[in-house]
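Minutes, structural biology subgroup

Action item carried over from last meeting: produce the structure token record for Kv channel-interacting protein 4 (Anolis carolinensis). EB confirmed the sequence was re-checked against the source entry. Recorded below for completeness.
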Amino acid sequence: MENIECPSGVVNEETFKEIYSQFFPQGDSTTYAHFLFNAFDTDHNGCVSFEDFVMGLSILLRGTVQEKLNWAFNLYDINKDGYVTKEEMLDIMKAIYDMMGKCTYPVVKEDAPRQHVETFFQKMDKNKDGVVTIDEFIESCQKDENIMRSMQLFENVI
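Output recorded by EB:
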């Protein structure tokens, strides 16, 4: 991955990864930082401006449930095609587990992220077409307290 130079006041992906590695020294945060960076990098130019970052943060901290869920959907939709696949969800979950490290989840088994995703995905994919749309995502999250709770948990890692 080439290191894109960004003007001052702007952060590139490497810097994002360095910041996250300091927040989560007990685990490997590089993959999660990569996904988060892409969610903040709204114009996909390899740089996150201060404005992009502040806008993202203000949604996560003060946004409505709908806004937060939209943001979360965008994070999970890794290839930005408007759908979340089981693989994408699994990639994000694995990244979160890796980042939190073994000390946070000492009893987590290797397949825990996959089981987590299986459960979530089955609940979310209402029409069973193998992908989750933004509407399915938002509806499922708002109806299911466990999902909302893990969204809250997920806010703690932003």
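Discussion: The beta strands are 10-12, 47-49, 84-85, 131-132.
Next step: EB to file the record with the rest of the batch.
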